[in-house]
Amino acid sequence: MVKEVSVLKSKTDELAELDKKHFIHPTSAPKKGAQDGPDIIFSDGQGIFANNLEGEAYIDGMSMLWNVNIGHGQKELAEAANEQMLKIAYSSAFKGFSNVPAIKLAEKLASIAPGDLNSVFYTSGGSESNDTAFKLSRFYWSLKGKHEKKKIIAMRDGYHGVTQAAQSATGIPTTHEFAGASVEGFYHATPHLTNCELGDKNDPNYEQSIRYLIEKEGADTIAAVIIEPVQGAGGVNIPPEGYLQAVRKLCDEFNILFIADEVICGFGRTGKMFGVENWEVVPDLMCIAKGITSGYSQLGGVMISDTVREAIVNYEGVMAHGFTYSGHPTACAVALKNIEIIERDGIVENAKAMEKEMQKGLAYLEEKHDIIRNSRSIGLLAAFELYNPATGEHFDPSLQAATKVVDECFNRKLILRAIGDFRVAIAPPLVINKQEINDMIHIIDESITAFKKTI
Fold it and tell me: Which residue of 10, 65, 98, 256 is most buried, as measured by CB atoms within 10 A?
């Protein structure tokens, strides 16, 4: 047994050295990676657990990147991919070519999407989906003869990806510091100003609102407003009641398309199949990715309303937009099986039921630890904030409180995510049960206790 552990450790060290030399990691510190190597090398997983090469099990409290919705080690998804690969692994969707899984998935998506979102344009992931939605919204208005409607209004603290347009829409300042990659035509409003969006010009925040930007820039220049039903990477910010309805009404009032970025919220994460369903809102375009395959294959898409589709399908020219992997047969086959499992096994219902257990656990942490406040969750999308009890304010950024708490959790084999300096996000696979949530809360409890001893 000792020899086996030694061999595994040697293998880990060997791979870590190769990683340091050859692998530049996304959204990581390059210098630290080159010097120290990876924090963990995953080998396998099952359910909510992901294992390192030494066989140590970590609770995946973030579904990796908010996307492993039905958990690790789902054999049926591997079998679906294998079956499709043995038929035809890849085929192009350009020039009218099609394939069976892409067609069947399009039909399935139309059947589960809200309202009249009855067609899909496939992409490879979330950034591509949002970029596509921006292009389609501008293309739509051009087809309608409104060529000046090109501007996009996004939200501060919103996250939409890292391609140039998606990054420009993202309202998190640090993302704009990388390579200066911003393009023109994107504007940012403060989210969740319900009264302002309903027309209250006496509200002190009115000039930060979507409505103000529309009036300032002119509705005839605005193509679309994009909103995450629940902001994910910006802080797990849940909108107040009536907000999304107010934005939908505002877009209708000014003849502007409403884009819902469901990349994180979709496929059960919020306790509904799609986040907008919590507020009974139907967007004109709905961006999807992540949970569509539970991360088992790279796939995204934009669901399109009948009104927008009607304009597009009557265009006689070639629509000069598409990706090599649009409608990828294997990815679509995996997505079909993933959705089948979500429906068959009551995954969305479980996410809603476990929301209550998560809220109980977070309430316990708030009651026990005076540094935890503003905990919130919807479905299995949750967060809490860290405060200095002596001042009543968030901890000074220099302390890196959230990162330290997350590190303490990692040392106890729980993976969470620090969002900025004082928020910690939680988003476990939707197959989690009550006992496993309690185990997570116990580890967070221990980690907070350890962190408090250092301040």
Answer: 256
